[in-house]
């Protein structure tokens, strides 16, 4: 058997099946287009619609072949402890949708195994589903002796991707590594947990569609779905004992060896950490490249767990500081040629990894100390759920990480207590929800009774602003009533309504319900039960005796100008979403929105604050699309065709069979139930007014459109104009002048501070000690920074402290220009001191001039560097040698 590299095996497999007539197709994203699955965990995931005959493969192909990136984390805690489990792996596969079936497949599997890979046939073993005589016969007809074929039950030989969907019995191929790998048990055989018989290929005969109730419905055609773990077959072909020792994985282990200064294979604990980081770093690189960002739920949480577990292991190995980026680079180097998306997303991946490492790294040590302390103090062998919760909530320890650390010390975690603390926290969060929402939720009982009776309300507001409608039910203070009188408030349900109920971020409509003796203000509209639209109303007091009764026919009219503004803002959120994806990348996904008449908010996944340039670019692109006047239309379609058309939906959300698609021609198509403009130019103009963080990897932009944008710009302009007139400068000089003023203010403050220091006199004490003898005490000193006032002040202090005749020659740096001051007491002047003469004599040294009286004189100059020379000159002039 010849050594084959991972790359060779990958290529040989794909080529083999291409030669058999299969179409080579790219791996699909790790984010499955399938709400029943969190992550893509098998090659067949992208082909589910083909098995269900919803999609068809064009001629002349008989099937498809792929190498699929997969993530499986259901057994995350044993990853690394065995040589076989990986969270990320590549699966080689080939698939037939009603074309070739068992006979061809078994023959090809044998041909590939023995002729392409060169596996000795007498080392191969086969399992089949227990009642699948047909497949046994096929293997026998291919020359396999009966004793190497065994029947296994549902657990081993019936394959399902999840609880529902395409599935079927399977036949598996095993490679016998030899008795030295075995457990020695006399009944050791394929299917045994030991390492002797290695399952390397699974051939699934996909014949059924599993239903929610557990029943199996025959698929219209019989299909093939096979999967061969690339790392596993590489281990066989490279004669190594574990997946971690194959060429590709060994290179990743080396990254850890280098960073930690460790050697793989010397110490079991170290090996485990090296393996875990090598494995997890592949999952992390591929997941982020496919647009997953760390978060606290769903696949984002899977990613966060893997990232944090890897960081923890690095910490255990003694690696200092962020290090995962080095692994990311290595993964890209090793696998980028097969998966270009990881090369394209290198920068994104690096940033996300670094930010998560920094976020977690800063609390890791504290969390670990907290946990160590708790474990140290523990009596018994169960760690309290509350402690695990604090670790999760305060220090960001995924519960699995806490469990793993505790487990290493033989301690279990009270998971129920942990869940209880989590539930309490959720309850607290709910209790904080707005009172208004609370009021609605307490109406749940009545509202569900109404919807059962009336059925869903017909919403006519996509095309109409007003409609004639019948009052079906009225609720007041949580109970059903027949009527509301003038001045009373309540909720009204109509058979049909143009009022949009708050949903998908768009606020509810307001307006009126009117008839001859009825005038009712609609203050808000909500959907308390699925399909039921309820209007929050107040009966006007303007019509004495006015009321609204069950059975009345009313004209329901929305506030049209308000709705127009809402429409503009709603369509603008779609355009902004598109522009954000253009500027920041495809990982940007909508995480929430708020669409009101006067403003909008759009929350999205992104891992760092936007730069001013990015914000400007998003705004520019959005306005470009507005000005290009793209047609906007909405249509209903099946969820399947929406997906095929590439419509943006929230992955993992459950949608009904029919969905509404909002198509902004040439810009984007998104599932949306909201109300929109009919052409983008109606939006007028969009202006982003803010960008901020609203959680880990969640950003928010706020914006205004049309007249609100105009008003916003006008307010900004007014503000600027006022400032300009205060500053007495032209409009566009405001910033320059403000900066200059701020600088001047700061200089002044500095100066004041300096002068104050001088004035405080502390420094003067030491200067006094330097007094020279000129027949009277003479101080000659450079005071650093000060203005003329400061120097005079200093002279006053010197004079007071001397408390006797004396003189001083002082110098300072006054904001970049040198200044000098000479001064003397009358006694000193009497004794011959002449301040004016001194200044005159010494000021040329600072390239300046000045003068004054014998008792006081000053000068300013141009050359700061001349201060010392000036003072020296004063000394030699006044102190006789
Ligand atoms: N779907 C099967 C598996 O994942 C064969 O591809 O094992």
Write the layout of secondary structure elements.
Layout (H helix, E strand, L loop, with lengths): L5 H14 L2 E3 L23 H4 L11 E9 L16 E10 L4 H15 L7 E6 L3 H9 L7 E4 L1 H4 E3 L4 E12 L20 E14 L5 E14 H8 L9 H14 L7 H22 L8 H19 L7 H12 L4 H5 L1 H32 L4 E2 L1 H11 L3 H10 L3 E2 L1 H17 L3 H8 L1 H11 L3 E2 L6 E11 L2 E3 L1 E3 L3 E6 L1 E2 L13 E5 L2 E12 L2 E8 L7 E3 L3 E6 L1 H25 L5 E6 L4 E6 L6 H16 L4 E7 H6 L13 E7 L3 E4 L14 E10 L2 E8 H22 L6 H27 L1 H8 L2 E2 L3 E9 L2 H15 L4 E8 L2 E8 L1 H5 L4 H8 L6 E4 L3 E5 L6 H12 L3
Helix pairs in contact: 7-8, 7-10, 8-9, 8-10, 8-12, 9-12, 10-12, 12-13, 13-15, 18-19, 22-24, 26-27
Bound molecules: serine.
Serine (SER) binds next to strand 8 and strand 9.
What features would you describe in this structure?
- The protein has 881 residues and is an alpha+beta fold.
- The protein folds into five domains: 6-244, 2-Layer Sandwich (BirA Bifunctional Protein, domain 2), CATH 3.30.930; 247-375, no CATH class; 446-558, Elongation Factor Tu (Ef-tu), domain 3 (Beta Barrel), CATH 2.40.30; 564-714, Threonyl-tRNA Synthetase, Chain A, domain 2; 750-880, Diaminopimelate Epimerase, Chain A, domain 1.
- The termini are far apart.
- The chain is built from 27 helices and 35 strands.
- It is extended and about 130 Å long.
- Helix 7 (247-260) packs antiparallel against helix 10 (324-335).
- The site of serine has 10 residues, from strand 8 and strand 9.
- Residues 42-44, 93, 159, 202, 204, 225-227 line the site of serine.
